[in-house]
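User: Before I run my own analysis I want an independent prediction to cross-check against. Here's the chain; please return only the structure tokens and, at the end, one sentence I can use as a sanity check.
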Amino acid sequence: MSSQTVIDGLEFARNGEALRGKIAVADMARLGEALFDDAGEVEYRLDGELNADGKPLLHLSVTGDLHLACQRCLGLLPYQLDIGHDLILASSEAELEELSDDTDEADAILGSRAMDVVALVEDEIILSLPLAAKHEEGKCDTQGKGEAGKALPFTALAALKKH
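Assistant: Structure tokens:
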């Protein structure tokens, strides 16, 4: 299991700091619920700065390859992750509400002295996933086995339906 990386988000942004790292997919339990398996890792880069209005801003980039489950055949569906997202940091709930209403350029989140970078990366990945991942039409496995060689659960039912 990877170690937890915690930053003071507001200071990180104000000081223009940068952070890079890799996270094993297996270390992101909430993300694992949406995947076919927990193979691989993702790379992230987090850059802090002040935006044109002087507000603390985090720019998060995440890349990697995930294995989603196809909603048609339940087999493995390779998915290339390439996220670039800006997050404006609010220092209070009131400021968060104001920023959420005023900004179109980036999402606003509540900044804190103990922001968990792994949880932030995991949240952004989850938000970026398609609602219903599917192979292209005609590309699903029709032999009853997923790409990992596992028997798919509805194959037996389909065979019974033919009789």
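Sanity check: The mean pLDDT is 84.
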